[in-house]
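Morning, I've got a small favour to ask if you have a moment. Here's the protein in full, and shout if anything looks odd to you:
***
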Amino acid sequence: MGTHKRIAVADAIRGIAVAMILMLHAIEHFNLYNQPVPDSPCLQFIDQMVWDSLWFVIGGKAYAIFALLFGFSFHIMLMHARERGDDFRLRFLWRMVLLFLFGNLNAAFFCGEVLVLYSLVGLIMPFICNLRTRTVLVLAAMCLLQPIEWVKMGLAFVAPEKLGIFDFPYGEHWMQAMKMLAEGSFLETVCANLWHGQIFSLAWAWGAGRFFQTAGLFMLGMVAGRMDAFSLTQRNTRLWGYIFIGSLMLYFPLTGLGSLLPLFVGGIDGESLRASCIGFLANDAFRGSLLSVFGSLQRFFFMLMIVCTLLFAFYYTPVQHVMRWLMPYGRMSLTNYVTQSIIGSFLFYHWGLHLVWCDTWSELLCLGVLLLQVAFCTWWMARHKRGPLEGIWHRLTYL
């Protein structure tokens, strides 16, 4: 069952992650956020339900699953190269250069993409791949705990004037990019996306802790590959069961603290709070960084619960038949991710159809796009070894 089954479930989960990304981008109108308020109260209620549900389940989690499997794929490629007697590290750095180019192709259509971020963070992988597993896990934990936020928490008390060195303002770039999405021609939109869009996207990712979180997820995915954690064994069943229970036990306290802390602090007089044993919470900068850490960990543990659920569903329930249907979609994740951006920008941006639809209709429309993509992937993978962009990426990697 080993390698084949492991890759099968990874492809299925990757396909689900890419589909989730499309579903979330649909209600965002691919960053344009120009949804109208429906006249019907019933449709307003459904819109709100769709918006809240998708953000709760997918926001910050789908990309994290994608990142986890990126690290897993790195390990698989590294092992295959070692079996051939090759050193894959330098070639992987070249592969990240190619991913940077694919990311900019994607960014020309959708400025909120993650491939450029992955290509930058992925440069660390060849330098840590020979470290011991325990060391990698320690590094991953440090990244997931958002070290910059802890530095900022310290500076909030000793040198608050220096906090600005960690911030990269992007408001003007965001406004310029959004203006072109809503009013610009195709060429104007592409130019704005590649300059203003990329600057605000990377600056936002830095401020949201995505650089360190992505690095930690890459490392965890590599460790999962080392442990053969995606194969069906009794040991892995217990492992993922413990991960699910542990994530569940940590998720709710973090969610509760993140939600209640601002209300608690806001309900206490400032002088009284500063004089109490938790007076440090009166510092807005400290509290903001602490909440950022809570939010990052909260999304991380929720993502782990999703992965555990999908693994158990694949191996132990009839849901595996639906998941297997998405395997070709997962094997063509790069092609599908870029294609989503092209189709989404055509549907919602000014240079294309410029659809101004509510959340519900936008979601149903992109669900149709997803079904067409899945059908195309099934047809394509029955005739080819790799997807179109995956094939180009592979050939250029092994020049």
